[in-house]
Amino acid sequence: MLKDKVAVVTGASRGIGKSISLALARQGAKIVAVDITLKGMDELLAEIKALGSEGVAVEGNVTVTADTEKMIDEAVRAFGRVDILVNNAGITRDGLLIRMKDEDWDAVLTVNLKGAFLCTRAASKVMTKQRFGRIINIASVVGQMGNAGQANYCASKAGLMGLTRSNARELAKRNITVNAVAPGFIISDMTEALPEKVRQDMAAQIPLERFGTADDIANAVVFLATDASGYITGQVLAVNGGMYM
Ligand code: NAP
């Protein structure tokens, strides 16, 4: 489905970003895997190869303009184009509002929101010339419904949804679609470490009665990257088991 397409995925070395990279590779896309360190990248590239595709790893910080330009340059150098950008890199620095430090606010807004802006700006220069692109931003259910103790994170993800809509309007005439995926509670290192009772209480809030998996998110990203979603832009696809609708 994505043969000859080139995808840049940020925060690709582990977690949801890794699953997205592998799911895109499974559909034939060539992967430019970006992360702040190259830890885990050899394994990812080997898995991409085993799926019959190709990839390159790029060390880059999404908050540094020069790095975002470098990752796009590397993609063009390696594979000649950039069709898909997945803005997945994200961090949390949780804390109650009255105790939240300025630096925790700034760090989360800078990685989750400014990082997506910088990567999109760099990629859209190439996509505009190609007259084709698929940009997919990984938001969060808490950007839609809020969450105590996550003012910075919720604001960053709500901002990312606004950025999605603005960029969708601006880039549509160049045949570039921009959408977001908003995951709910996803099985991850963080949720695996919670006590069983807490996990059960969290799952009880979800109509489908289970946490999501990284593959649930990756499948939604694949859909938004393929021609099947060519008439969809500026949307937020909720992948949350029904916990927010
Ligand atoms: P994760 O396991 O922490 O992976 C995030 C990756 O991004 C890490 O490899 C991290 O590198 C990298 N990264 C962090 N800052 C970066 C930067 N400035 N530049 C480049 N790479 C950077 O996170 P995840 O759970 O897979 O989440 C992926 C995305 O889904 C995030 O945007 C998150 O907000 C969103 N999300 C997750 C959940 C969930 O339940 N897990 C739910 C809703 C939304 P280091 O580890 O080396 O710092």
Q: What would you note in describing this structure?
A:
- The chain has 245 residues and is of the alpha/beta class.
- The protein is 47% helix and 16% strand.
- The chain has helices at residues 15-26, 41-50, 65-79, 102-130, 142-145, 151-171, 189-192, 196-204, 214-225; strands at residues 6-10, 30-35, 55-59, 84-87, 133-138, 176-183, 236-239.
- α2 (41-50) links the parallel β2 (30-35) and β3 (55-59).
- α1 crosses α9 and α4 packs parallel to α6 (151-171).
- The radius of gyration is 17 Å and the shape is globular.
- The model has no long low-confidence stretch (mean pLDDT 97).
- It binds NADP nicotinamide-adenine-dinucleotide phosphate.
- NADP nicotinamide-adenine-dinucleotide phosphate is lined by residues 10-11, 13-17, 35-37, 61-63, 88-91, 111, 115, 138, 140, 183, 185-186, 188.
Associated small molecules? NADP nicotinamide-adenine-dinucleotide phosphate
Low-confidence segments, given as residue ranges, are: none
Principal-axis shape: globular
* E-strand count: 7
Class computed from helices, strands and strand pairing: alpha/beta
Strand content: 15-25%
Sheet bearing the most strands, described? 7 strands, parallel
Approximately how much helix is present in the residues? 40-55%
Radius of gyration: 17 Å
Q: How are the strands of the biggest sheet laid out side by side? A: 3-2-1-4-5-6-7
N-to-C CA distance: 30 Å
| Secondary-structure element string | EHEHEHEHEHHEHHHE
Q: Mean pLDDT across all residues, rounded?
A: 97
The number of distinct helices, counting runs of at least 4 residues, comes to 9
